[in-house]
Design a protein that fits this description.
CATH architecture: 3-Layer(aba) Sandwich
Structural class: alpha/beta
Radius of gyration: 15 Å
Shape: globular
Distance between the termini: 22 Å
Number of helices: 6
Strand order of the largest sheet: 1-6-5-2-3-4
Largest sheet: 6 strands, parallel
Order of helices and strands: EHEHEHEHEHEH
Length: about 170
């Protein structure tokens, strides 16, 4: 039952992902959450984020921001990034994951999703058939409803790690 929330990969940071490797495997689109995935909650795009998106575009990726935030927040972040975006996405609903693929001209089979929350980001991607990468939150300061979800996430991640150990025979 908990497996529906397990990411395909769990990494320390968005900035640790080997996007070139995924491109070589045939992935062509990447959907990103913004807050605590690319920058601290509410922050504008910083130089690291700008450089990441420039590198992704040079590799040949199409990218889309998928955020439950409202339009002004997403537009402000996207000013220097200049990729597709969908605000007020209602994650984990599948509708806007599919819409993001449509904007990028990709399918669920060649699109990655990168986010920091299990019950919105990862679950929505998995329900949509998109490869999901969970990253650790960039900054500990979060809204209260997210803080409460983090407690539940710890339980799921405990069992996720146990399942990985079983798979490896440890």
């Amino acid at each position: 039952m908990l497996e529906q929330f397990y990411p395909d990969e769990y990494l320390d940071s968005t900035y640790d992902i080997d996007f070139k490797k995924f491109y070589e495997k045939g992935y062509r689109g990447i959907i990103f959450d913004i807050d605590n995935t690319l920058v601290p909650h509410g922050a504008p795009a910083d130089r690291r984020a700008e450089e990441l998106f420039q590198r992704l575009k040079e590799l040949g990726y199409s990218c889309c921001l998928l955020s439950n935030n409202q339009r002004p927040r997403v537009e402000r972040f996207n000013e220097k990034i200049q990729v597709y975006f969908i605000e007020n996405a209602h994650k984990p609903s599948r509708k806007n994951y599919r819409k993001a693929c449509g904007l990028m001209g990709t399918g669920t089979d060649n699109t990655l999703f990168v986010g920091d929350q299990l019950f919105t980001d990862v679950w929505g991607a998995k329900r949509s058939g998109i490869y999901s990468i969970l990253v650790k939150p960039i900054h500990p300061k979060e809204e209260i409803q997210i803080v409460l979800k983090r407690y539940l996430e710890r339980i799921v991640l405990y069992f996720y790690r146990k399942s990985l150990q079983r798979e490896k025979g440890l």
